[in-house]
Every structure is written in C-alpha cells, then in structure tokens.
Amino acid sequence: MPIRQLSETMINQIAAGEVIERPASVVKELVENALDAGASRVEIVTAGGGLNLIRVTDDGSGIPEQELALAIARHCTSKLSDSIHDIRSLGFRGEALPSIGSVARLSIRSRTAGGDSAAEIGIDGGRVSAVKPAAANRGTTVEVRDLFFATPARLKFMKGERAESSATSDVVKRIAIAFPAVRFTLAGADRSTLELPATSDTPEGRLARVAQVMGKDFPDNAIAIDAAREGVHLAGHVSIPSYTRANALQQYAYVNGRPVRDKLIAGAIRGAFADVLPRDRHAVTVLFLSLDPSTVDVNVHPAKADVRFRDPGLVRGLIVGAIREALAGAGIRAATTGAAGMMAAFRPGAAPHSHPGPANGHRSYEAAYRASGGFDPLRSAQRPLDMDEARTPRNGFAENEQAAFDTGPLASADVRAGMAEPTEALLGMVLGAARAQVHENYIVAQTRDSLVIVDQHAAHERLVYEALKNALHSRAVPSQMLLLPEIVDLPEEDAERLAMHSETLAKFGLGLERFGPGAVAVRETPSMLGETNVQQLVRDLADEIADNDTVETLKDRLDRIAATMACHGSVRSGRLLKAEEMNALLRQMEATPGSGTCNHGRPTYIELKLADIERLFGRR
Q1: Tens digit of each residue's pLDDT (9 = 90 or more) over 366-381
Q2: Which of 27, 235, 292, 473 has the fewest CB within 10 Å, making it most exposed?
Q3: What is the pTM assigned to this prediction?
Q4: CATH architecture assignment, domain 8-196
Q5: HEC per residue, 387-399
C-alpha cells in the first residue's frame, strides 16, 4: 500500500484516542479551558453518564468571534509562548477541541467582555459549520452531544452510566481542590448535584475546599505540610496514621496547580507512611508541589496527567522527609472517627453522631415517661413485693428498715486498684491518668474531658520499635563478612548505579564493589538479615535506584526486622501492670512520634469524649 497523507478528520480521531478516553476526559479538558480563561464560576451538566450530553458553562474571558475557527483547529492555542519549557497554564497542546469534535457533535458559544453579542461554531464528526451569531452572556458554553458516535467501536469500552458519572465527579473534585476561589457545579440526569461553593485562595480557604471534597472529618484528622528544598516547595495536608482509607483514591497531588497522578509522588507517600499504616490501608493526602516550570516536564502524555521531574530524587526526598517530620511534630493524636466507631458499637443500628438525643434513636425515655403519666408502683410489673394503700413497702423494704443494712459509701475503683487520686496535671495530659486495667490488656485512662482506652501491647510495640530504629540509624549497621564474595551479574548501567551508591549502602551494612563489566561483588551483608538471598536483594536495590535514585529497599528490610523484634519484645497481653507502669507507658506514648498506631498500623488507643458518653446515655 502506497504512503499517503491522512485526512484531517482521521488525524484528529487518532489524537482523540489518546486525549479523549471517556466522558470524564472531555469534562477535564473543557473545565481546564474554562479555568485558563479566568473563570470564577464553572457549571457542568451531563446526561447518560456524559455519553449523551456534556455542557460546560463558564464566566471567563470568552473567545473573540474571529478566533472561533482557530479554536477548533488542530495545534492552535493561546496558552503557549515560544518555549515549551515555560508552561504556566493547564492546557497548551491545542488538541482537545478538534479531537472532541472529530468523535462527537460539538458546539461552542462564546462572548467576550467587550463584545456586543455572542458567536457560535459547531463540529459534527469532524465537519465544521460556519460561525454564526448567537445569544449568550459573557463567557463560553461548550456542548458535546453523542460522544463517540463517529467511532462506535469506542462505545463498547465504556462502562455503565453510574461508573462514568462517578469518574466525572472525581475529575471535577480533583480540579476543584486546586482552585478554591472558583465555584463548581456538577448536575447529572439523575438530578444529583455536586455543589462546591467558592472559598478563598488562602490556607484556610484551601482547607475549606478540601473539606467540601473529602468530608468534614478530614480537617480534624489532618496535619499541615509546609517544606522547601532547593527551589521546590511542598504544601498541603496529610492524614494522621489512624485515619486511613481502603484505597488510594483520596490521595490528591498537584504540580504547579495541575492535578497529576504520578507514580513517584504516590511511591513517596507510601514510603513516608510505610511503618505507621497497615499494608492494605492508605493515607489521605492533598499535596501541592511548586517549582520552576523548566524543571518539570508536563508534556509526557497528551492527557497531561503524568509529569517527569528533572531531579526525581530531590522531589521524593522532600515529600518523604516533610511528611515524616510533620508526623513526628504532630505528637500523638487519635482519629476522631475512632470515637464514632465506638459509639456505633454501643448503639447497633444507629449512625454515629446522627442525633442529639437518646442513644437508641427512638423517642427519649423522658418523653415515654411523660406520655405514660409517670411511674405507678401499684401498676408496675416490677412493683415491690408488698405495699400498703399508702404505697409504703411492708416486710422490711421501707427506707427505715433498710437503713440497718447500710454499709456506707463503697470504695472507689481507684482505691481498689491501689491508685492515688490523679492530679490535675495528669488529667491535663493528652492521655490523662491511668485509672484501671481491664482484661489484662487494656488501660483505661481519664483526662479532663474524655475517656481513653489504650491497647498496652500495641502501644509498647511501637515504643520498642521506635527505640530500635533510632539505634539502628544513628550509627553504621553491623555487617557480617561473607566467606566467599557473592558475584551478581547485572546490566552495565545497574552495576554503575550500585557502585555510585556504595558508600550509602555500606552504612546499612552492605559492602559491594565493581567486579568487571556488568557485575558487582558483595563482600558484606547486614548482620540483622542473617542468611539472605543476596542476588535478589542486589537486583531489587538496582531496580529501585533506577526508578527513584534511592536505596530505601535495604532500609525497609532492616526496619521490618526491627518491627518483628519489637513485636516479640514488647509488653504482652495478659500481663498485669501497676499504676506506676501504666502511667509511665502513657507518658512514653505522648513523647514518641507515631505512637498513635502500632507497627502494623492498628490504633494503639481510642478516645471517647465525655460529651459522646453523655450522648450514649441520652443526657444530651
């Protein structure tokens, strides 16, 4: 078959295969155009999950009538200067509108601030209609109908209406977090509406927008991040270790205001939370990276969701270090949702924090009491055994007769446990004063306004683990000499990378050196590893250095061994503790970073506020 020039429509349809994957991709491109135009209000309407209709309306600067034809032409844009290395807008490729128009029915109606009237242009499966006058307010309305009608094979890959609508909602939320001063509205055919009112472009306003998207619980369970290194600034919030999710969908990352899904950032978040979360749980994060546009490449993929950093090691180190420092500086905190879970356990069938009245969700005891006319001992099934007409108990149940059996006030639980009354200073501590030990594993403590329950084994496990880690990383790790050096054959570039990191590896007890072309000789391994698969360890390190320019794999293995040692060396369940031991454990927890969870990510304590307890008993 001879070589021939493809038609413009086919070129756009090929580009649409990369840019327009599903309705959510269309919404993303159109909303980004609206934001680049300076919109303060963006309204999105969809039908059929976006396959039947997508309409995006904004109040931005608008498109002049004479430029409408250029707006739908391939590789025409107003957002790019002469340099591809200085990108300061969300869009820049000039591919979205012609790509959408090649596979759908597209119309654009726009009016500038100084325009007397609006103008409209349309594309129907690649066929462009003439520009014509229209009526519209300032801004732009883009309407997309019958998505993929021109490429029906693509329709077979679409999911159900609910799945497509959910993907669109996720895209809008992801973008909205980066633009808190813009009002977003998303309406669907099922009459469901997502409204995100504008806040402000201040730290408080950004956190308020995050709460709109991620729920009101997040700000109460989040730690602020603010760090900078060599021209790269990181800001945002991360959840405390005891506030997690079953997947990573609530991890939002932004590079110079652009929403991205970058594996380097995701890996850095996992690394920062590695020893404080369970392996099947994920932190909730909102991170904003700001750096010189020339040091990051956003032109990696037409969808612009991937980025490539000039110095990935710097970015990863900044994220890991900033999060770990923030977690250490935040002290010990329990997730506010822990109390809600405990209350739900006490009240089966009732949603936590769902009512201001009785614990069982039905009408209050007081209301039922009043409706029945009060308690009548003569009619009660639980009436005293014998009662005269004056309603006075006979046969020794009267108050005077019972006084003879009065033994005085009972000793308090503190006295029975041999504990002194807690001081005001202890009650003012985060974990308060120990009051009792129940089931030989749980310490019950009291603060001024709450009840705290501590898992003694999980708590002490974290304390021992942190002490082992500090000892492990404060000096060179002891190594053991191999009787015969282990020769590992590798690609030349992997061998060179390992040799460059040999000094760092030696600090962790791994001694290696080059052994001719494409090989390294391992002479020492960390003593803590015991007998280990040296070949696999070295290959894993080579892969990680190639991906992230770090040697975290070896450090993580040593940390896992320390975690195992801590688990077996901590206070076991079933051990009775004295009052002094319990209080000492509480004070150590308060002074140890990350002690809100154990090495496996489980919470070490739960706090129940006095107000919640009173709510359980219908006192509030």
Answers
A1: 444 444 454 454 554 4
A2: 292
A3: 0.69
A4: 2-Layer Sandwich (3.30)
A5: ECCCCCECCCCCH
